[in-house]
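Progress note, project year one: complex with uridine-5'-diphosphate-xylopyranose.
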Amino acid sequence: MRLTVIGCGYLGAVHAAAMAHLGHDVLGIDTDPHRASTLARGEAPFYEPGLPELLAPGAADHRLRFTAEPTTEDLALADVHFIAVGTPQSAHGGGADLSQVFSAVDLLLEHLPEGGSPLVVGKSTVPVGTAREVARRLAGRAHVVWNPEFLREGLAVKDTLHPDRIVYGLPDDPDQARAACQSLDTVYAELLAEGIPRITMDYATAELVKTAANSFLATKISFINAMSAMCEAAGADVTVLAQALGHDQRIGHRFLQAGVGFGGGCLPKDIRALRASAVSMGVDALADLLAQVDAINQAQREHIVELAVQHAQGGPEGVKGMEGMEGMAVTILGAAFKPNSDDRRDSPALDVADRLAQLGATVTICDPKALDGVAQSHPGLLPQVDVEEALKGAELVLLLTEWQQFVELDPARAAELVARPIIIDGRNALDPQAWRAAGWSYTGMGR
Ligand code: UDX
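Model obtained:
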């Protein structure tokens, strides 16, 4: 089939490449000419394992193109148009900024002839009600399906080609719904043949499935972080607690890792967007729950800063003000919001680094992939890719993004490099016994 993918960020670039890999003829469209030309050269504009292989010239046998300036022919001849633009948190309040979605709709309105019936497939995460509005604007030129994407950064290619489920939010009209469903089934034929569940529903449910999934994951993380505070108060160990909880198959082991909390381009903005929808629709209980999930997440960052100040003040007797960090050499391991990603959006590691720098610490920040432009965007921090260099002379080390190379650090060697062997493990990713045996003062989260 002939497809376009409008918006080539983490979602769209991976989707375009994956669809070409499935054998479709794909045109990726991005308003940023630099991004479009980078992709057109077969290069990934961000770090995502597996993507370079799909983009490499020749990989898709000329079925994959990218442009910043699509022609009418490009758009009018395609069977299916995917909308994969960003829906960032709005500058006013917590709701989603839909300007990129409606710009994509305007682009289609400009080029699609009247009376045609191509399919427009929304993949972006949007507040409930958006699909209906997109369908209203495109009426007479295209049919609309909402097909949210659940990919994780770092695993985006795998998640796109082997999703847990495929969700279609279909139009109310049964004939339109049937035709739309058939078209999209053809696009995803290879995935459906593998037996991946495909669930059809109305627009509103499809929009809510996506925000509900992310809100549930965020709630799971905030729950275990709240339990981690309880474990600290009670002298219990949250890592052992989580392990025991996870054996209950109704709970499961995943997303029960206590630590500095969640960040990234999705979870934080999605819980805020769902909260804003809940407030505007009078669903107070959901709004209150999500506010609490957000507050617990923010409190974890504050808690780590307090632990750092406590060490600077020389003891666990409680923090007296926020003094003591001035001039202290602090090394933060991690800048990305999670390992295997170069994404720093709402990164807890970077947030804590900034707060410690504001308290007067001299902060070195180390990350294997996520330091591009940090010196400009965070002039108070000292970026360092080499972990041994970053550790040299540190008086306090914080592990905030659990990259494999940090988790595998040899504590004895690390102790030789630092000025004072004190580590706060903000992801509970290290073995406390091994680090203590090598002479470190080790503090985890809730253990
Ligand atoms: C998330 C969803 O998982 C994905 O389905 C959706 O499409 C987009 O949002 P992503 O943002 O890539 O994906 O990251 P994810 O792996 O979910 O992690 C989110 C954050 O939670 C990270 O900061 C991570 O460090 C943190 N996290 C995750 C925890 O703090 N504890 C955990 O147990 C799991």
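The pocket of uridine-5'-diphosphate-xylopyranose is lined by residues 150-153, 214, 217, 221, 255-257, 259, 261-264, 266-267, 337-338 (CB under 6 Å).
Residues 217 and 255 are 7 Å apart (CA to CA).
No further modelling is planned for this target in the current period.
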